[in-house]
Amino acid sequence: MEPPACDHKVFEHDRVHLRVDHGIFEVFRRNRIIGSYRAPLSWVKVRAEARKGGLTRLHFGNIEELDEPIYASTTSSKHGLVTVEIQTTDEPLYRAFFTELAQLSDRRIAS
User: Fold this and answer.
1) 82 and 56 in contact (C-beta within 8 Å)?
2) Which of 47, 52, 55, 89 lies at a CB distance of 3.0 to 4.6 Å from 74, suitable for a disulfide?
3) CA distance 103 to 51
């Protein structure tokens, strides 16, 4: 599947850099541990896990089923390939970016 021509998007917030370019999604974290995540946008899934203390963890990984939403809440202990911890108050900013990516990749956001 050929990626759309206008699929370049960047989201930067605090110590997290998210981007899509030519159908490839990437996550970069600014921390002491080198770690990033890179996958075709059509494979990406993000699961938001509410934590105590006003924090939310975003778990990035690859879908297992083609109809999985790009973004959803989780209470599962099954984690992704890369985890980013954010302030819960910032979660709507991330959700808005993933909503744009869902539209770009013709996928859905879980309700």
Assistant:
1) no
2) 47
3) 28
- Could you tell me the pTM of the whole model? 0.87
Task: Please give the helix or strand (H or E) that residue 40 lies within, else none.
Answer: strand 36-40
pLDDT for the residue numbered 3: 47
Backbone angles phi, psi at 89, to 5 degrees: -65, -20
What are 21's two structure tokens?
């370019």
Mean pLDDT of the chain: 88
Interatomic CA distance for residues 88 and 53, integer angstroms: 9
